[in-house]
């Protein structure tokens, strides 16, 4: 099989335009024709402590170029599968939704409009945050679609209803999602330690259809048992907060929480999810380059997303 080393440009990671995975750029959304569309949502006005997640989309895109060098796909020798085969994986980067400084509602509206456009064009939306509040407009964009089950990887429950009038910050997205009739339930994985949500938030979450598991509970149950708790054969929306990972491998985030996931724990769950149902939307949030001096968090985010997209497309086929 041709691997791209013998002819044409070498295109090392530091050469060229840093789109996600060095996939083509499509800024005319009315002409979007792809299986997967990568959208940036560089918004971080919803943070309660350290801001900086607005740098996430650029950092993830730049890190993703590491995995876009000289191959006709990504061969996984453990699975004996070539993921993202060249010429078959139709992925484009559609740039960023427009952000309006100091205006949460309009910025969110722009994200929602972008995701709606991607869905209308028949592509899988993969949104790069931004803080976790960007999930609110992402989920809102599915109001005209078939019902979805929301699967969250996170250290925090993010189920606050309202605090000092704030309903659309990064502590609110799972509550806002649970209120929508087309969100049939939530699976919340990795939740641990001192959280942004009080006891009543957990009680409300369970009453509104959430299954909540900590990292330690997941390790005791095992991957297969956790997957069995997720409704089979459904349409899944995945929201991945990078602070779901342990800060030893993901320090570059505003609210790190010790005791988090390792890389392979999440990858094995994601692989199982792509086999168990249909992934119809993804966001990965809370990467903050300013707290990531070695770039390992951005690399982790890019690696997770490319592996996830590869498995979504492979298992769909």
From TrEMBL:
Keywords: Hydrolase, Manganese, Metal-binding
Cofactor note: Binds 2 manganese ions per subunit.
EC number: 3.5.3.11
InterPro entries assigned: Agmatinase-rel, Ureohydrolase, Ureohydrolase_dom_sf, Ureohydrolase_Mn_BS
UniProt KW Protein biosynthesis keyword: no
CC cofactor: Mn(2+)
Pfam family, one: Arginase
Listed GO MF terms: agmatinase activity; metal ion binding
Binding, Mn(2+): 132, 154, 156, 158, 241, 243
A single BP term in Gene Ontology: putrescine biosynthetic process from arginine, via agmatine
Database matches in SUPFAM superfamilies: Arginase/deacetylase
PANTHER family given in the database record: ARGINASE/AGMATINASE (PTHR11358), GUANIDINO ACID HYDROLASE, MITOCHONDRIAL (PTHR11358:SF26)
Family statement: Belongs to the arginase family. Agmatinase subfamily.
Protein name: Agmatinase
